[in-house]
UniProtKB/TrEMBL annotation:
EC class (word): hydrolase
Organism: Novosphingobium pokkalii
EC number of this enzyme: 3.2.1.89
Family according to the record: Belongs to the glycosyl hydrolase 53 family.
Signal peptide segment: 1-22
Name under which the protein is recorded: Arabinogalactan endo-beta-1,4-galactanase
Pfam family, one: Glyco_hydro_53
InterPro entries the UniProt entry points to: GH, Glyco_hydro_53
Length: 375
């Protein structure tokens, strides 16, 4: 090859190589839309005699969730619930195993408590209650890592982890309307986050981290405080949205999702929601939801429940969010007793009917296609 042509080819090759190197990287693929349910009650309900049906045939709620288009199952974990063996580690391992066998992703919800932790209260486990802040930080970190290591050894590491449940109040002892010591609170949150990151690296599996706040009106103030305190390493903002306990309608929820996504650069999910399909009872335990908490335009009926979920999900998607999780679709009425009475306070807001535990039309919400509209 003549010298000039060789030089020109070399120059061209160099130009092409440098052009390729200078080309901007392709933008990352957007995260998928996660639709699913919290099935923390299923093992207990089945042990209490509940038989779930779909078109009159026996149905496994995990399989049913997947068959109808769901791709995620959420489960809560309590540290040492001496009043029940459900939602303790062994029960949670069984639940996660069932979910993975059905082809579902798993969101593991650490309550960091022996009992319910929620937007009103964050009780510390009995074993940690008297510890100093330094000791609580270490205990929370080590417990998180221990649980994830055990799940990894069982081949059941979750795809996502919640570091706390509805942590509106200060972790490990805080209550509603009490001021939060953000130096302490950030240390506790970051201890859980660090443990998840360490487990993910140690076991070679990506685990997304969620921080979770009850009701949309509380999201921006809480995350602003968390950001200022140095709580930064998370992937997902989870919001509980129940119209009965929120000041916001669906439009207001959408505005918060949009603002949070833009402000913090995280995914945003409605990780808890529910809607009543009836005002009937199957037991003497008072129902928590019903016509008194209905949203105009969404009747308390099976069709209204399904339409609420479809419109809620469309609102989430329209505003840049990418997850909706139904809370306790499996908490049907049985012969078993709880601290609140015999049966369930949620049977009229489950996704199975009251008399036969037949799957309701709400399950069809999972299989719809949702694309952004009006943006």
């Amino acid at each position: 090859m003549p010298l000039l042509r060789r030089a020109l080819c070399a120059s061209a090759s160099l130009f092409l190589a440098s052009s390729a190197m200078a080309a901007p990287p392709a933008p990352p693929a957007p995260p998928p839309l996660y639709l699913g349910a919290d099935l923390s009650f299923t093992n207990e309900m089945e042990a209490c005699g509940a038989k779930f049906l779909d078109h009159g045939k026996p149905a496994d709620p995990f399989v049913l969730l997947k068959q109808h288009g769901g791709n995620l199952m959420r489960v809560r974990l309590w540290n040492n619930p001496t009043w029940t063996h459900y939602s303790a580690y062994d029960d949670v391992l069984k639940t996660i195993t069932r979910a993975h066998a059905a082809g579902l992703n798993v969101l593991l919800d650490f309550h960091y408590s022996d009992d319910w932790a929620d937007g009103d209260k964050q009780p510390a486990p009995a074993a940690w209650a008297g510890l100093s802040t330094d000791a609580q930080v270490k205990a929370l970190h080590d417990y998180t890592r221990e649980v994830l290591d055990k799940l990894a050894a069982a081949g059941q590491l979750p795809e996502m982890v919640q570091v706390g449940n509805e942590t509106n109040a200060a972790m490990q002892g805080g209550a509603k309307d009490q001021p939060i010591d953000w130096v302490r609170n950030a240390r506790l949150l970051n201890a859980g986050i660090s443990a998840v990151r360490e487990a993910s690296k140690a076991h070679g599996k990506p685990i997304q981290i969620m921080l979770h706040i009850a009701q949309p009106e509380n999201v921006i103030p809480w995350f602003d405080d968390a950001t200022a305190a140095g709580v930064l390493d998370y992937d997902i903002i989870g919001i509980s949205y129940y119209s009965k306990w929120s000041k916001y309608n669906l439009s207001g929820l959408g505005k918060v999702i949009d603002a949070a996504h833009r402000r913090y650069g995280a995914q945003v999910w409605v990780v808890e929601t529910a809607y009543a399909f009836s005002d009937d009872h199957a037991d003497d335990t008072t129902n928590l939801l019903g016509s008194d908490s209905a949203i105009p335009g969404y009747p308390v009926s099976p069709q209204g429940q399904r339409r609420y979920l479809e419109d809620l999900t469309q609102t989430v998607v329209n505003n840049g969010g990418n997850g909706v999780v139904y809370w306790a679709p499996d908490w049907v009425s049985t012969k078993c007793k709880t601290r609140w009475g015999t049966g369930s306070s949620w049977e009229n807001a489950a996704m199975f009917d009251i008399k036969r535990h037949e799957a309701l039309p709400a399950f069809d919400w999972l299989g719809k296609t949702y694309t952004p509209q009006g943006k």
